[in-house]
User: Fold this.
Amino acid sequence: MVWLCWFALLWAALGTTHASNVTYDGRSLIIDGQHTILFSGSIHYPRSTPEMWPSLIAKAKAGGLDAIDTYVFWNLHEPQLGQFDFSGRRDIVRFIKEVQAQGLYLCLRIGPFIEAEWNYGGLPIWLRDVQGIVFRSDNEPFKYHMGRFVTKLVEMMISERLYASQGGPIILSQIENEYGTIEGAFHENGPPYVRWAASLAVGLRTGVPWVMCKQDDAPDPVINTCNGRRCGETFAGPNSPNKPSMWTENWTSFYQVYGETPDRRSAEDIAFHTALFIARNGSYVNYYMYHGGTNFERTTAEYMLTSYYDQAPLDEYGLIRQPKWGHLKELHASIKLCLKPLLYGEHTTFPLGQLQQAYVFKGNSEECAAFLVNNDPRRNARVFFENSSYELPPKSISILPDCKIEAFNTAKVSTQFGTRSMKSDQKFDLPDVWEEYKEAIPNFNETSLRESVLLEQMSTTKDTTDYLWYTFSFQHDSWDTGSILKVDSLGHVLYGFVNGEFVGSAHGSFHNGSFTLEKNVSFNNGTNYVSLLSVMVGLPDSGPLLESRVAGLRRVSIQDKEDFKDFTNYAWGYQVGLLGENLQIYTENGSSNAQWSKFGSSSHEPLTWYKTQFDAPGGEDPVALNLGSMGKGEAWVNGQSIGRYWVSFHTYNDSPSQTWYNLPRSFLKPTGNLLVLLEEENGNPLDVSIDTVSIGNVCGKVGRSHPPRLVSWAGGRNQTRPNNGKKHGRRPKVQLRCPPGRSISRILFASYGDPFGDCQSYAMGSCHSSNSSAIAEMACIGKSTCTIPVASSNFGGDPCPGIDKTLLVDAECA
Assistant:
């Protein structure tokens, strides 16, 4: 077809990113004089490793993306005032150059406040100590430091010639982040700050446009953009007719916190809202996240999982998540078939029914593209458009690149499903392979930091550790077994010790900012020592007045049979961090200098360090640490933290929030890798294992409608129209593909007929061809990829004439 040839030429022309001039108008970004529709995906450089970047970017490009989007992480790059770090996972220049090398554009979201479920929203903790500072406000101290960092970052990009105006890949930059959601909290100091931030950005003269997301009052020439799941329905549009409609965060799932179940978003829903946004004159869509990755070290915001957006099109380990990746790839290709009428044609919208609409784009010649929308969430809709009939599934959009033939429907998933599997490579189930180190419980006499009040935790630890010991001593004049220790906390976790013995723990949750530890305790006759370990699981990352947020203990009291004692304002001794942290026993040198004991010496008491060694698994599959038997703590491999774990904080369905923890192969040596676990509770390391990660199962489900039938059209003529089950006149088929190096070893399920469910949960229906499994085995066993036509002739005849047929095949890869 003509439009297929035109698309091939255009795609070849867009395959490089040697842009030199980026502007915009009310329709779209304009790159080197050409209007564009761009699909972008968020990949955050510090949430993966430099060794992973080429593969992640290549898979994003193969998925039909034009650009990569990343935040800039201020607190990673300037952990101490004036001390900058751009090495390793922080090497943003290397990341951007890899994007450029693979022929993609880049959107640089500088912020420098980013939220991003990242510790303190990306702001350095030392900002809290700047006198008179008010974050993200018309406040001179904050504006000075923000301006200094943004300027340094932009100058770095310019020096490396990374802006499109210099021939580089950066076509967009972002200043601030979702400030409109809190602007009102700053009253008269909010709008001037917005204007200042915009002026700062534009004044840096990068030669590319700037955006502000969720900022309806973004000053010209900064573009206001939308974030969310349904921007095609909710976005009021740009605040000027001269600005394009852009979607900077199309959430592919959502972040997850400990204690809550994953928030999954279907490929069909993402595709529907993306197509709707484009149909309503949208021209830029960024998927947040396209690859979520891992919050290594202590970089999560409060209560956030170490795993980040694992349900994205590329999962935490960088594996392709199907059908999300493939379905969106087909969507991108279908929309790219419509580029000319979309960008240069006239746009009309008209109803096709009560809940159905057509969005039509017609060019000067015969170019025509249409988006047929069914907004009914429950029922199919038969609509008539351009003298043809189209069957639209519930809540779906059909894309017609020539206003005639359906190239794609958002609800018809033809891409295979993939199931991730974990295979145990090494188990540490023998006590002899483990050693342990019992963390010392400090008492008041052993502390050097003293105050007569309860200190605020974040200001005391400066985010150098999750841990702050609060200790005090007092005299008791009898042996007492009936006292109640009560501690109110604004931290996240609390462990209580009396005279060195553990008495209990408590923790808060993401939706509850405070909690109380209340325990019956026994005291000695004489001097008693109380040691309270307050633990943070990340710092807050959102909301106004972050500089004023507090954490740690707020009130401490003891109630006995005859007296109530309030110790809130009392003589307190403090220890910042744990002794094992200070000794760095998670490193080779620190570990060799510590006095380790045989496993079992501490009877799995709280605050115990464990260490062992292991060899790297063979092959190239990603590696994960299975911590399903542990409680809460942090894990290190060869001195590098792979993040916090909190397996004991179960979700509502009584399962761990996260069991496997990403262990990048670049962290490993061939042999003799040091694994160290800090266990705060009483987890059992004998069930810990090193596992490899792969796509174990692949599944496809494809249906076909009735054969073409005679329809009476509005024009009075009888015509035969193409079968809507076909795309471009092709016969439907199930296509299965195992990961590289694997082949299909077993057919787990196959049914040609009307099987129930989908690839995640299925069962045989009332109509089933008895040849289904045999045909699937013949086509697929022993092959890395196979194709099975969805046709009755392929299965020895029609098992149930008169109804639509579906083929569902689930296969195991080995």
In short: The first strand starts at residue 22 and ends at 24. DSSP finds 14 helices and 46 strands in the chain.
